[in-house]
Every structure is written in structure tokens, then in C-alpha cells.
Amino acid sequence: MVKRIRIAVIGARSSGKSYLLYDMIHAFELLGYHPEELPLSYPHSSFGAYFYDTFNNATGGMRGTERYACRPESHYGAHLRHGRFGCRLAVDFLNIPGEVFDLSNTHLRDYFELKRHIERKGKGLFWLQEWRSPSGHLLRLIVPPGFDITQHTPVKALARHRHGNYLQWENIASELQEGQYTLQRQKTVSGRYLLHHLTELYTDSVLLTLEQCWSMITQQGHLDLDDYKANQVLHYFYPLHFCEEATDIIICDKLTDPHSAGSLTEAVASYMDLTKRHNPNVYLAFRGADLLLGSYAPFSDSSQAPQLARKPSLRNTLYSDVVSLLAPLLRTSQPAPEGLYLPDEWRRHILQSTGTGIGNAFWHLLNASVSHNWLGRQFHQLRGTKSVFELSSAPDSYLPPHVYLTSTPIDSHLRIYTSDPDDVTRFYCTEGSHIQSFTQTIRQGNSQHLCFGSYQLLTDVLLQNGLYPSGLRNRPPLLKYAQSKL
User: Fold this and answer.
1) Is the pLDDT of residue 134 over 60?
2) Which of 18, 187, 207, 481 has the most CB atoms lying inside 10 A of its own CB?
């Protein structure tokens, strides 16, 4: 049996999405999961392609996530197998810019209204065409009835135009011609089929077909196509729909950003309230834990560091020790102990992102993710755990469950890599007279990823999806709380 996990990673630009995913891919390996060969029919890009697409060879850093036209190829995934237990896992993730949820509630409602109209359409309006290249790669297009793409003169789109914008029929015709694709078969499909398979379909053709068939899709719905285009509801249709399919949603936040992720988490909570049927697991990941560590002793004396590569429990102990010292300081202005560093502006940032009660920020999103129906309440009572409301109102509630401090630029020798002032995507450390790049140190095998915070976050993701990594019995109490089942 194959377990499927679908992860939506959402955050503003430079919030740490790309680095978090980079680290989580490596954390899978640390937890014993290794990739299998993907079939030719696999609709998404591989984990290896993610490194290629986001790694900046010129600087040794990671490219940021810009506004882009989302297609199945923008989606990354893998088939993983656990080397010891034989467990098989199908994982895919989507890197979603925060502006997708900058839409007002009215525009989010517009998305769901259009989706309902599409769901009501039976066969006859949407036609599925499957095109195959000589290498075996498959493109699945949705076209209007009676459509013939050969009637469109092929026009090649510039790469930068293709990245940020969806294509027209003549551009799709050019891609089919250049890739030597031939039509294999076609059949009519329902609106429900289209939505269920959206992340496998060539997005550009779906959007063009929706526009071309707009009046037939939205009969008596009074939906204005120009409004939908101007408000970017169509441009963001793919990531909005993926969040309905996701098993897990991770909100990324950067401690040094002047704006917290509080409004973003509330927007995602409003979105989830509108779905009315889906309760994904939710998490909040702060980037910048390396800045909090200051002169914390374990990172000043790395003599015990080699053990981290062999004993996962030490990774958890180290992480838990740091958070246990920092968490109580969120309710006080006292200086951080043990060489840690938590300035007032970062303390306020964390509180604004997590919220101080169930009605706002991440507490709100956490509550929206929990099933409040009769069956959900019965499971809650059987587990004997506290409700989200009880947790949020507890006097010692410093951080909500499923909140993590993450930091990519730390290796398993406990070397902290700092940001290059000339390139914010590149991290380096000085050791003696040598300057070392984080990505090059890791690639050359001179150290492992520490995956500080992201290792614990991925463990939580696996737990919430019914998988039990090794080392759970020895978890510190703080991690048991953070990774609790709600």
C-alpha cells in the first residue's frame, strides 16, 4: 500500500519556502526514505529537478520564488521507500506565493463559485486530449468541443513569458510541434473529472477552455469573466485548487521580515472555512533560528557534533533544548539565557504570527483545520486530548502545536552559515582562514544537513498522516506537544 502526502508550502517572498523544501527533501533521507525511479507517466517534476530549478550555480545559493504560471511541471514529487520498514510513500509539494491569498474573501468566494459551476457540468463540454512525444512524455490537454489545435499557427513563447504567464493556443501548438507530440486519443469528460485531475492536466489549456466556454459554464451565474481575470482568480486557480487537495499546509514566516504571517494565516483559515469539506493538517515554520542561537554553547563547542549524523534523537534534544529556553520568553521581556538571542521585535513578530487567542493568526488557522463535526468530537474525546480552545487559553501556552523554528544554514558539525551580504540567497561560514559555502560543503559530502526545525517538522507531517518514524519514544515533552494530534 502506498501512502500519499500532498504538501502546500505558502509564504511571502523571501519567507524561506524554497529553503524549507530544500531541507525537508534532505530530512526524508535522514528519516530513512529514499527515492524510487519515477514512471514516464508521472505528471510532476522530480525532487532532483527541484534542486536544478531552484539552485543558483553562479552564486551557490537558492533562487527565490517569483510570481509564476503554475503547471504540473511546477509541481515536484517523488515515490519514496523506507529502507528498513519497506513503507512506500508518494509525496508531492507545491511552492505557493503568499499573494495567492492576498485576495479578499469576495475573490476567494468567486473561486468557489466558479468551481461549483464547473462541477455541475456533465460530459460534452470538456474534451480531454492526450498527446505523446517520441520519448514517451505525455501532455493532457482540456479543449472545447470540436476544437482543432492545428488550426492555430504555432508561435514560440519566450521562456520568461512562459514562466510568468499562461500561454495562448498558438503557443501550445508550438510546444506540441517542437516536442513532436502526436495525438493519441481524446474523449469527453465531466467537470468533476477536470477538477479531480487538475494537477495532471496542462493548466494553460484548462484556463483557455474555461474562458472560451465561459457563458456555457456559468449560465445564470452572473459571473463576469473580465472581473475573474482582473482579480487574478483564474491565474491562481491551480494553487487555490491544490490547497483543497493538500493533506498538509505549511505557512512560512521570516523572523526578520517587518510584516508577520498573521494576516496570511487568517486568509488561509478563511479559505478553509469556505471549503466546508477538507481539513488538512497545518503548520507554521519560522525562518531565522540561526539568528536566535547567538553564542549558544553547543554551537560554540562542536566536539559532539559527529554523533548527530548517527543518532537522530540528539537532533531532537538539541532542537527541544533551544525552543524550551526561548518559548517562555515570548510572555516576558527578560533577556534570553544561555547565549540565546531574542530581541523584542522578533518576540512581537512571533506573537503576531501565532496569535494570542483562538480567534486570530495561527491559532485561528489551527482551529479551522480541526474537524468540529460529531465524528471529530468523538475522536477527540477518545484520545483524551485538549481542544484547540483549551490549549490557546492555557496560561503556559507559549507556542501553539505544530509551530517550528527552522534554519537551513546549519550543518551536522553545528557550523552556522550566515547570509552573504552581496547575495541573500547564498550562505557561508568562516573557519580559520577558509570561507565555506553551505551548499558546496553539503554537496561535497564534508557534512550533513542538520535540518534544524525542518527535521522535526517533517516528523510531525509523517505523524499526522499516520506514519511513525523511529525515535519517537525518546522525544522530549516539548516535541510531543508540538507534534500532538488535535
Assistant:
1) yes
2) 18
Specify the 3-state DSSP secondary structure of 485.
coil
The answer to whether 253 and 11 have CB atoms below 8 angstroms apart is: yes
For the entire predicted model, the pTM comes to 0.93
The CA distance from 246 to 265, in Å, is 16
Most trustworthy range by pLDDT among 51-60, 99-108, 218-227:
218-227
Q: Could you please report the per-residue DSSP string of 140-186? A: EEEE-TT--GGGSPP-PPPHHHHHHSPPPHHHHHHHHHHTT-EEEEE
- Per-residue confidence band for 421, with pLDDT thresholds at 50, 70 and 90: low
- Residues 289/455, Cβ–Cβ less than 8 Å: no
Q: Which of 158, 181, 154 is nearest to 169 (CA)?
A: 154
Block residue for cell numbers 474537524: 371
Other CB atoms within a 10 A radius of the CB of residue 144 amount to 16
In whole angstroms, give the CA distance from residue 141 to residue 348.
Answer: 48
CB under 8 Å to 2, separation ≥6 — which residues? 79, 88, 89, 90
163 to 50, 69, 179, 230, 414: CA distances (angstroms): 15, 6, 18, 19, 38
Residue of 43, 187, 71, 210 whose CA lies nearest to 129: 187
Contacts of 33 (CB under 8 A, 6+ apart): 80, 81, 82, 83, 89
- For residue 18, which phi and psi values (nearest 5 degrees)? -60, -40
Phi and psi at 52, nearest 5°, equal: -65, -40
**How far apart (Å, rounded) are the C-alpha atoms in residues 308 and 306?**
5
| DSSP per-residue string spanning 282-306 | EEEEEE-HHHH-TT-HHHH--TTGG
Per-residue pLDDT tens digits for 236-256 = 999 999 999 999 999 999 999
The neighbouring-strand residues paired with 411 are 449
- Looking at residue 81, its amino acid is R
